[in-house]
Amino acid sequence: MACFRRRNDLPNVLSTSECARTTEYILYRFCTRYVPGSWSARRWARLDLRTVRAYTLAAHYAVSKMHDERGGECAMLQSFGRMLALAGILVAALQAGDPAVGTWILDLKKSSFSPGPPPKSETRVYRESAEGITATAITTTVKGDTYTVEYPVNYDGNSHRVTGSTDFDAIEMTKVSQFRAESILMHAGREIGRATREVSADGQTLTIDTERTSSSGEKVHNLLVYHRQTNR
After folding, report:
1. What is the 3-class SS of 31-44, one letter each residue?
2. CA 7, CA 121: separation in Å to the nearest integer?
3. Which backbone phi and psi does 175 adopt, to 5 degrees?
4. Residue 91 — left, alpha, or beta (φ > 0 → left; ψ -120 to 50 → alpha)?
5. Which stretch of 11-25, 76-90, 108-122, 146-160 has the lowest confidence by average pLDDT?
6. Is the residue at 1 inside a domain?
7. Which of 183, 178, 216 is closest to 199 using CA atoms?
């Protein structure tokens, strides 16, 4: 099934007979991709909100086309309408927000750093805007130096630029479940590590488990535990 980028593309790629399959595809992709513990969730291709909106737009077009061709509703159209309503609910749920959005404070006592040393403090902010979510990590070292790392939070599996870090310059993120995401850390086009990020069920704890290789070839394993400060 194609991903429809522009409304003008729809008449050329979508026929009436495809409408039911389109909606089933929306629902199946959502269930396998965004429902925690769903079957085969890890195997499906990455899906982001823009793609879901494109499929939903295609489904709306199919309904309109069936009205035009048949001159009214039929049992298939009524059933399809109910499926489309459910798809709309799922889209709204996804739009409700990422559980990681907010301000998080690093808990040094619960975190571990190998080989270290640990920072003096760190604040991590996931900020949502019309353009999407941006992650900002502000770290203060034991020497009093402060640096800021920033990157876009896109669960599309594509490489996105990271600024402010000397360890990695790009990140690829995918969403495993509502509360869990996985990342590949890149430097100069080469994978140097992986990380998992998980928000607790109550939304109050954020855990990031990172394993990577430093520029000097040293193995680094950091387990970072944060507590929520605000929801924004």
Report:
1. HHHHCCCCCCCCCC
2. 48
3. -100, 120
4. alpha
5. 11-25
6. no
7. 178
198 with 138, same domain: the answer is yes
- pTM for this predicted structure: 0.61
Same domain, 28 and 117: no
Q: Are residues 71 and 126 in the same domain?
A: no
SS3 103: strand
Mean pLDDT check: name the lowest of 71-75, 109-113, 205-209. 71-75
Average pLDDT over residues 171-178: 96
Position 157 pLDDT exceeds 90:
yes
Backbone phi and psi for residue 57, each to the nearest 5 degrees, phi listed first: -60, -40
Residues listed for the chain: 232
pLDDT digits (tens, 9 = 90+) for 204-227: 999 999 999 998 899 999 999 999
**For the chain, how long is the longest CA-to-CA vector?**
74
CA dist 93 and 76 (Å) reads 26
How many domains are there within the chain? 2
What mean pLDDT, rounded, does the chain reach?
Answer: 77
What are the respective helix, strand and coil percentages of the chain, to the nearest 5? 30, 35, 35
DSSP 74: -
CA triple 202-231-33, angle to 5 deg = 60
Return the ∠ at Cα 87 (arms to 172 and 176), rounded to 5°.
Answer: 25
